[in-house]
Amino acid sequence: MNQIISSLSEETDRILTTNILPYWMNRMIDQENGGFYGRITGDEQLIPEADKGAILNCRILWTFSAAYRLYGKDEYLQTATRAKRYLLDRFYDRTYGGVYWSVDYKGQPTDTKKQIYALGFAIYGLSEYYRATQDSEALSYVIDLFESIEKHSFDKVKNGYFEAFSREWKEIADMRLSDKDANERKTMNTHLHILEPYTNLYRIWKDERLKKQLRNLIEVFIERIYDPTTGHLQLFFTDDWKSPYHLYSYGHDIEASWLIHEAALELGDKELLAKIEPIIQHIADAASEGLSPEGSMIYERNLDTDHMDTDRHWWVQAEAVVGYLNLYQYFGNQEALSKAINCWNFIRTNLIDNVHGEWYWSVSESGSVNHTDDKAGFWKCPYHNGRMCMEIKVKSSLLF
Prior knowledge:
Blueprint (H helix, E strand, L loop, with lengths): L1 H26 L24 E2 H18 L2 H18 L10 E2 L5 E3 L2 E2 H18 L2 H17 L11 E2 L20 E2 H17 L3 H18 L10 E2 L9 E3 H18 L2 H18 L12 E3 L4 E3 L2 E2 H18 L2 H17 L11 E2 L19 H17 L1
Antiparallel strand pairs: 1-2, 2-3, 4-5, 6-7, 8-9, 9-10, 11-12
Helix pairs in contact: 1-12, 2-3, 2-4, 2-12, 3-4, 4-5, 4-6, 6-7, 6-8, 7-8, 8-9, 8-10, 10-11, 10-12
């Protein structure tokens, strides 16, 4: 097993440092207007005047901060610092707080709504930058963003966090992250991506209120979002936590299994760990329903229409590798290790662009590569696949 994990670590380390990170440093830096370009299409066409999304910028910030922390390479620090500076100078709202959803290619706001998902990723990126550099400015802003979420988004009556607001923190009619989402005030996805940055923030800022809210988020997942009958996570909710939707998102299931576990481990509460560890294993088992015979994981199933989205998205495969490796690391689950390796083999064979760099958005069930969706853009970022590589590096060092 040591040889298998060692080979996996060596391969993913090479992919990170020679395929993923160079793509973003060489292709996406906007030397003329600052920050990073907003889009490269699926057939490698740079769109220099595309809007720049907060999610993309924050995920670049997290990825290169984490890479610098692990590798110590100056070019990674320079890229992370560029992302930090652009986030604070162009996306941060100095009048009302929070971050804009998008700016134009010159850095002027285009969509000023306050999507809590985006604030979460700003916290994730800035907290990782602080972990790597001890930069006091990053810490100051990250605490400010935490305060904005808690002040405006936290539901003090029915618990959880609301999705989105206007620039001035007023209610808005359309709260969706994307056209694919249901227009509800609470979602699993946003809660997951508040849990994730709050865990990272707690690593650098041992605030008691943050600790309380992080624990509360874990409890929201296991008491409200997790379905104990199926093991799957429910996706969309009304204010009072009713979910009329019947969808399975296999990638979110497996991603949540290890992020919930990571949060509980960071809190270090043995009683909480004992409570959640059987649940996170149940969630990971439920996610396995989305595994195909060759080891990849399909995207989604709609139980109401019985429609299966069988595309193999890049981020789902990356999270599957990490999630199953997490089960092996902490519970000695040999079958989970095999699932992680099989999924990696699928990625290596089908998703990595060995000519231009980075990974394709997805591959269809028939094996055709998706050249329609972006190689880089609002949602196509170096975070899922970059994090997978770095998680493997860290986990392999702990396993030996």
